[in-house]
Amino acid sequence: MSNSLLGEREARINVNYLATLDFIISLGFGLILPLFPIYVSRMGGGGLEVGILFASFVLTRALLAAPFGNLSDKIGRKRIILIGSSLYAVLAVLFTVPEDWWGLIFVRGFQGVASAMVWPVSEALVIDSSPVAKRGFSLSKIVLASNLGMMIGPFVGGALFYTAFNILHFSETDSFKFPFYFTSVLAFGGFVMAWARVTDAKAPERAPSKMTFRKLLRPDGTDAQDRRNLKALYVNAMMEGFAFSSIGPLMVLFLSFRFTDLGADAISIIIGSAMGVGALFTLSAGRLADKTSRKRQFVLGGYMAFIGTILVPFGWTLWLIIAFLALRSLAFQVSAPALRALQADTVPETVRGRLIGMLESMSNFGSVLGAPIGGVMWDYFHGRDLGFGTAFDGTVLPFLISGILGLLAVTMVQMLVKERVPHVHPPEPDG
Q1: What would you measure as the largest C-alpha separation in the chain, in angstroms?
Q2: Which of 170, 306, 338, 386 has its CA 20 to 30 A from that of 398?
Q3: Which of 176, 320, 303 is closest to 255 using CA atoms?
């Protein structure tokens, strides 16, 4: 059990408010994400530039997630979350200032700082607030909230762009900027809610201000198997981060290349709909992770997700591609709560913020490499004849590499990680 300062009801309410905060931030993030590659292209950028901008975000998040997690162990989670959510509100407006794509790098990098304050720290606070037997379900709430925000966001972003361009008759450039202002308002609302409703669930630890890399691999309170688990989970996080980011920023470019008649609003709807299929199963996946093997659930979902990734560019119709995207989303939602609960079971409570932050950092270091490499592959290979006598071109390569690397990462977890928390008392359903 976690040494939570909150009672069961108060802890559940805390988790729900943190999930709401994640929804608000993710909604703001999701509504600009499908428009962002096209926004960059209007500023003279291509696949590489989109990858660089994505990398600038994940690089700062990778460098700072663990330090902010450590700071939250010392001074409390809520303070860090409040600073991060207020920074999000300011940065959303600053995205509208640069006139060239390279001017976005500075803003995008600072957005990574805000993300390092909010997402890994709020996850640690959810774990603080949850007993072991309900971790999977509690974590599935923030996974669901984040993905609902990312799912609804593209619809909202497309609607805002349509309103600005077709109803308010803004210029195309100003229409792309309009959703950023809406994002700022959302983030400020999240800040107010967190300030009024979120509570630290445990007293700050008197932990050392710094932890060496050796300590991150061999933290106090762990045995040999925990340390093997932690090392494998670090590597898995980095490999999966690379796999996700090498195609994530390219999905919009892929759809607009394969189906030239699709506009930004239609692509937003397609991406949001595919994500929505997976979101339907998130809470059920969290409950299942508490009742059965978390590792087995992650592995099965991971295999399905990365096979779906490989299949996406081989769809010969738009509807088939949407089906593969939906399969990929569903499988990720099945695996995500189980993986997060498996990570939570491994890290010691006294340095939880630091180690959850380090897991986030490893994922983001992988993303730093994956985003620009995926962008370069896209710029060089998409549309090229690979010489294999097939109807498919070099567009498939980023998806193929992402899928294979992801399958290898999941296999490594299957072979090396051993679950340490028995699941013999299924949790009672709650809200």
Answers
A1: 64
A2: 338
A3: 320
Query: What CATH number does the domain located at 8-197+210-416 have?
Result: 1.20.1250.20
Q: Is pLDDT at 425 greater than 70 in this prediction?
A: no
The dihedral of CA 93, 98, 100, 103: what is its sign?
A: negative
**Nearest alpha carbon to residue 348 among 214, 226, 210:** 226
Q: From CA 372, how far away is CA 250, in angstroms rounded?
A: 10
Record the tokens describing residue 152, joined without a space: 């609804």
Looking up tokens 């959850």 gives 356
Best CA proximity match to 214, nearest among 116, 358, 75: 358
Q: How many helices (H) and strands (E) does the chain have?
A: 16, 0
How confident is the model over 328-348, as pLDDT tens digits? 888 888 888 888 888 888 877
Contact 12, 431 (CB under 8 A): yes
For residue range 147-188, list pLDDT tens digits in order: 788 778 877 887 888 888 888 888 877 887 888 888 899 899
Percent of the chain with pLDDT over 90: 11
What CA–CA distance (Å, rounded) separates 27 from 157? 9
- Tokens representing 375? 């962008």
Residue with tokens 């071109």: 393
Q: Quote the pTM value.
A: 0.70
What six digits make up the tokens of 156?
């909202």
| Dihedrals phi, psi of 211, to nearest 5 degrees | -125, 130
Q: Which residue has the higher pLDDT, 55 or 427?
A: 55
Q: How far is CA 170 from the centre of its chain?
A: 32
Query: How far is the C-alpha of 131 from the C-alpha of 128, rounded, in Å?
Result: 8
Rounded to whole angstroms, the Cα distance separating 211 from 143 reads 28
* pLDDT computed for residue 10 by the predictor: 79
The answer to whether 191 and 85 have CB atoms below 8 angstroms apart is: yes
**pLDDT tens-place string over residues 111-151:** 889 988 998 888 889 888 888 778 788 888 888 888 788 77
Radius of gyration of the chain (CA): 21
